[in-house]
Automatic annotation (TrEMBL):
Classification of source organism: Bacteria, Pseudomonadati, Pseudomonadota, Betaproteobacteria, Burkholderiales
Keywords assigned: Repeat, TPR repeat
Naturally occurring in which organism (per UniProt): Orrella marina
UniProt protein name: Uncharacterized protein
TPR repeats: 182-215
Pfam families in the cross-refs: TPR_16, TPR_6
Entry keyword Oxidoreductase: no
PROSITE patterns cross-referenced by the UniProt entry: TPR
PANTHER family, per database record: TETRATRICOPEPTIDE REPEAT PROTEIN 6, UDP-N-ACETYLGLUCOSAMINE--PEPTIDE N-ACETYLGLUCOSAMINYLTRANSFERASE SPINDLY-RELATED
Position of the signal peptide: none
């Protein structure tokens, strides 16, 4: 119909070769052959709505164009969530994965935890809490919630979630113990000085001491709380332990007052003298020793 070597015949030959069943690189995942659709007019359009968006080849008005589209958006997976090096991309992938499209609750939670770690690195702690809330409770999830609340300054909530994590099987590490200790101590200080609740403060100090029996500041704080409640024997015991662990003159001053409460004049005098050795100008200690 057309001269053998005409431009049009060469064009149709090329179009025929393109229309032969073949596998494109972008379609090898499905190994889907792209077959032509030939309309009656002279234009040849190689399309297949069945196989889109694998590839579309268009031949029209004597011009051939091959438009390659991505096979599909890569689905968010736990592996991609954990391995993505770019913080923002990792966060996006992990947040999508945590919505539930990747399988078991364990995997979903793991993606959410990893996203929370990224959010914490950006100081977006409230977003992290929102992401982790109302998920199946696991040891790892509660551990991460503890970390979020601790960094946010909500030490009571942090301690609560750390405790749940430990009960659920998270092994106690030095890092966890240190955070739980600090959380308990800070909470005790808030109760004693801000809320003025010495009884509740004693419970919080006791928890800190259980985590670290040699925590000097907790012994000092609990001794002060006992002193406030006029439980002098218990106060002297804690303050003595604090002094042994290295407390400064404040420990001696409070223990001297304990001895005053117990009417132990000699012991009180000895402690007031220790106060003046470390703080020569302390007026209360001078008055107690009748020093002008």
């Amino acid at each position: 119909m057309y001269p053998k070597h005409s431009c049009w015949s060469q064009f149709l030959l090329l179009a025929h070769k393109i229309s032969e069943p073949r596998f494109l690189i972008s379609d090898r995942i499905n190994m889907t052959p792209i077959r032509p659709n030939k309309p009656a007019n002279s234009d040849i359009v190689l399309t297949s709505t069945r196989f889109l968006p694998a590839a579309t080849a268009i031949v029209t008005a004597g011009v051939i164009a091959v438009i390659a589209t991505s096979h599909a958006q890569q689905l968010p997976t736990l592996e991609r969530c954990l391995n993505e090096a770019t913080t923002e991309r990792a966060l996006n992938i992990c947040e999508m994965a945590s919505t539930g499209a990747i399988g078991s609750d364990v995997k979903i939670n793991e993606a959410a935890i990893h996203a929370s770690e990224k959010l914490r690195s950006q100081s977006r702690h409230k977003d992290a809490i929102e992401l982790l809330t109302n998920r199946p409770s696991t040891a790892a999830l509660n551990l991460e919630l503890g970390n979020v609340y601790f960094e946010l300054g909500d030490v009571q909530s942090a301690d609560f979630h750390y405790e749940i994590a430990l009960l659920a099987g998270v092994p106690m590490t030095d890092a966890i113990r240190e955070r739980m200790l600090n959380a308990a101590y800070i909470y005790a200080e808030e109760l004693q000085f801000s809320a003025v609740k010495p009884e509740a403060a004693i419970d919080a100090y006791t928890r800190a001491i259980e985590l670290d029996p040699d925590h000097m500041r907790s012994h000092l704080g609990r001794g002060q709380a006992y002193l406030t409640l006029q439980q002098f024997q218990l106060a002297c015991k804690d303050l003595g332990r604090a002094i042994t662990l290295g407390a400064d003159w404040t420990g001696y001053l409070m223990r001297a007052r304990c001895h005053d409460g117990l009417a132990d004049t000699e012991a009180a005098r000895s402690d007031y003298e220790m106060v003046l050795k470390q703080y020569p100008g302390h007026l209360a200690a001078k008055r107690a020793l009748s020093i002008p």
